[in-house]
Amino acid sequence: MHQAGGSLYSEDCTEVTVDSPEVVAGTEYWAARFSEQNVPTDQPDISGFAAGEYVFATGGSWNYDGLAVGFPELEGKWSSAPLPAGPANAGSFIGGNVMGVMAESDAPGTSAAFIDSVYSDEGVAAMLDTAAANNVLWLPPRTDKVAETHLDDANKGALTEIFETSVGPPNCSGWEPASPNVQLALQSIVLEGVPVEEALAAAKTEMEATLQ
């Protein structure tokens, strides 16, 4: 969707745009990967690399150490890269966890100070060291700290580019309750043969019902 220039909502979050021509084009391209190129509908197991079953897969940052720890025989035989760019935008997506202070907090100042400490230079260094000691790649939201992870230079470069060009979920109220049903609508295209425009219309209905 993003590669084709589409978005789930208008920029001010007042309108659902999941049925726009750009989203339709992006969704049709995505769906064709399953119907025309036999992309599996289940999540690939990274053991397939070691077995020679496939030559690439899309995934997340957890795959870095999953490959390094689980399949040491592949060391030096794989690398990562951003998803290819589409006609309008790059294609990678950023998720992750969020730290915040609830409005009802009895100590908002202390809570905010704790978050500041976690993402300070010292806090990030401690988190990176602890993660690396446990064979886990922790990516801080501070993109300037990617260079301090335990990855090699090629993978650090890929992550830096991803951070610079990727997008995250929409920051619109109503998206969280609607998103499971939007995912079901998209799955119906691939698993049940529902036409793209029909599925996106169903997704739009779900999104408009929670739009605030």
Automatic annotation (TrEMBL):
InterPro entries on file: SBP (IPR006059)
Tree of life domain: Bacteria
Pfam families: SBP_bac_8
Identification of the protein by name: Extracellular solute-binding protein
UniProt source species: Glycomyces endophyticus
